[in-house]
Amino acid sequence: MGELDRLAMYTQMVRIRQYESRIMQEYHADKSPAWDIGAGLIPGEMHLAAGQEPAAVGVCAHLKKGDAITAPHRPHHFALAHGVDMNKMTAEIYGRTGGLCKGKGGHMHLFDPENHFSCSGIIAQGLPVACGQALAFQRKGTDNVAIAVTGEGAANQGAFHESLNLAAVWDLPVIFVIEDNDWAISVPKDASTAGASNADRAAGYGMPGVRVEDNDVEAMYEAAGAAIDRARAGDGPSLIEIHTLRLFGHFEGDAQAYRPELATVNERDPIPKYAATLQELGELTDDQIASIQADADAEVDAAIEFAKASPEPAPEDALLHVFA
Amino acid sequence: MMRNASVGIIANPASSRDIRRIVARGPATTTNDKINSLARLMEGLAATGVKRVVSMSDAGGIAQGLAAIAQKPSASHWPDLDFVDQEITHGPTDTISAVRSMRSQNVGAIVVLGGDGTNRLLLGETGGTPVASISTGTNNAFPRHDEPTVVGFAAGYVATGAIDSSTCTYRAKSLGVMDGTQVMGALVDVAIVDGDRIASGAVWDARSLREIFLCFAEADAVGLSSVGGHLRPTSREEPQGLHIRLDDSSPVRVTVPIAPGLVRELGIASVSTLEPQAEIRIESEAGVISVDGERSMRFVSGTEISVSLDTNGPLVLDVQRAMAEAANTTTTTKGEDTHG
Fold first, then answer.
1. What is the CATH number of domain B174-310?
2. Interchain CB distance below 8 Å, A222 and B197
3. In 3D, which of B120, B109, B123 has the Cα closest to residue B79?
4. Which residues on adjacent β-strands are paired with residue B114?
């Protein structure tokens, strides 16, 4: 496990938060009518990961060139933490030709071959893909790993169990990361899942399963580091479930009337909490907080400008670069 | 004497899921295993005539699972099952508020399902109520590995007054960590660890250990107390504890299971007896204090930290002694006396 760089982790969390906050503003800026997801600058549904930064940052701090991530429909935090270009990613979200997929994928279909990053709106779809990537790493004899990210609701899908089984049978260098934010859209976990912790399910496949409580980035960093070291060493797959927080709605426009704990959400925001820890340790000053925020603001604003300046696809190109 | 007896249950939904499952092949006691353990406990309690059980509430699925089983026809003979009406915080205060409620309801015994960390939360909370512990954590020394059904018998016999609790209980020792006033307590060990990380909590990097204070040290233990167990076994009931200083350059070496499946060789600088009430100042200037295997508090240069041993821990129900007492007093038999 490498050296813990707290300032880098804090900076990455702030960067992600600023991105999600600005995308939220942009998404709603010109929706008319508000419920028309096809209207406005950013078309389609939007699932933002504010509050879930510790999951992505704790894992990605251990990754290196060639490691792969498959993310679900809420992918921005893992994409940014894994080094996906913010400009190209933003252009893709805006549906512009300068985007990762020339504007034809949108925010749930960010594909970045250079960084081995992909995501999908189909629940649990990324898990078999991660197993395939891990198999390729294993056959090539590299020490790269694949990270398969999904939510707690997806752990009831067949693809989740098939992937754990296959990873265990073939001893694949894959780490399953479950972001338990308590809500599968509007369904609470206890109404849909037999067993309160998906970390326990790993035992059925003979792999270690750890649950990280409290949305704690350093606890996630330590658990992910142990799992990734294990996979790189050839000791096989692991599962990590983090109890995280969905700070915003399931999708933008979600009024969240189903959510009884909504009033306490902001109190549980992991970023101010981590800032307080770093200040207590003497590793973060007020000036640094301001400058990290200013850097994040500038980078995100520049990415949004890049996206807006990128042309929309021409109608005659509708059938280019697509399949099926 | 048969009282209208009740028993309390504390069950920690978070135990046994920490990083030791990866770094030390720690056992996986699942939520369903915990629910099944409690169901077996209920059978033992029912067999001894316990009328009512008060269980902690939780959001981790244990209370929900136990309540579901209690509704089934096969559980119709169980004691009445009630849950503490408490706010769920997902933290240690859930256990503490549940114990306080149980004591206010005069339960005759409390059964704890969890690891060392769960039992530690009972410090100063259980008074004269006997406590029986069932191990579910990843790395435990305090709870013994007793079958829950049998724990149910033992707790039931004590709670109903079928046996005298003084024959089968002892007062556990505890360790206090002070920086002027007591800030934390432990039932098994306090360790001083290098660095400033609390992170996942669990102590599994042996190189980071500087000092270990132990309430007891059994030769067959796993975890930090195994260091003392391999050097100078110290029982749970004698008044003294142990204080060990570690130094990787020391020629005195000991190889111990620092966690399940994780065996490490440690250099030992000194081993000394820890007398009750003696305040021992720690040597490290800065670092992290771990209590019962969990990194819990950072301290910085200039903080004077000391540790002392006390003999005022929970009143522990010794299941083996309780069952022997029950057999010897014919509590376990009906009909003719078979002791002749």
1. 2.60.200
2. yes
3. B109
4. B135
Which stretches of chain A drop beneath a pLDDT of 70? Answer: 1, 324
The yes/no answer on whether domain B6-172+313-328 falls in CATH 1.20.120 is: no
Is position A196 within any domain?
yes
For residues A243 and A143, what is the distance between their CA atoms, to the nearest angstrom? 28
Cβ atoms A86, A98 nearer than 8 A: no
Chain B residues near residue A243 by CB distance under 8 angstroms: 90
Which among A196, A219, A238 has the least Cβ separation from residue B60? Answer: A196
A1 lies in a domain? no
Residues 189-218 of B with CB under 8 A from A: 196-201
CA dihedral B227, B230, B235, B236 (to 10 degrees): 30
CA of A243, closest CA in chain B: separation in Å?
11
For position A271, which CATH number holds?
Answer: 3.40.50.970
B159 three-class SS: helix
| Inter-chain CB proximity B18 and A230 less than 8 Å | no
Please tell me whether residue A59 adopts helix, strand or coil conformation: helix
Residue A79: which of A167, A144, A15 has the closest Cα?
A15
- Nearest by CB to residue B21, choosing from A208, A213, A219, is A208
Residues of B within 8 A of A190 (CB-CB) are 59, 61, 64
Distance (Å, rounded) from C-alpha A318 to C-alpha B241?
77
CB contact under 8 A, B17 and A195: no
Residue A322 near residue A101 (C-beta atoms within 8 A): no
Question: For chain B, what are the domain ranges?
Answer: 6-172+313-328, 174-310
DSSP track, B52-77: EEEE---SSSHHHHHHHHHTSGGGTT
- Is residue B244 within 8 Å of B209, Cβ to Cβ? no
Residue among B269, B307, B267, B305 at smallest CA distance from B285: B305
Closest partner residue to B64 among A190, A200, A219, by Cβ? A190
Domain of A311 in residue numbering reads as 6-317
In this prediction the ipTM stands at 0.79
For tokens 């934390």, the residue is B184
| Structural domain total, chain A | 1
Query: How confident is the model over B262-301, as pLDDT tens digits?
Result: 899 999 999 999 999 999 999 888 899 999 988 889 998 8
Q: Is residue A323 part of a domain?
A: no
| B17 → closest Cβ in A190, A197, A222 | A197
Residue A182 lies in a domain: yes
Per DSSP (E only), the strands in B172-293 are: 174-178, 182-186, 189-193, 209-214, 241-246, 253-259, 262-274, 280-281, 287-291
Report the sign of the C-alpha dihedral through residues A71, A76, A79, A82, in that order: negative
B36: contact with A, CB 8 A cutoff: no
Q: Which residue of B has its CA nearest to A268?
A: B89
CB contacts < 8 A, A to B, total 75
In angstroms, rounded to a whole number, what is the distance separating the alpha carbons of residues A201 and A165?
11
Q: What's the whole-model pTM score?
A: 0.88
**Mean of the per-residue pLDDT values of chain B:** 91
Q: First CA to last CA across chain A, in angstroms?
A: 43
| Interval B50-77: pLDDT, tens | 999 999 999 888 999 999 999 999 999 9
3-state SS, residue A265: coil
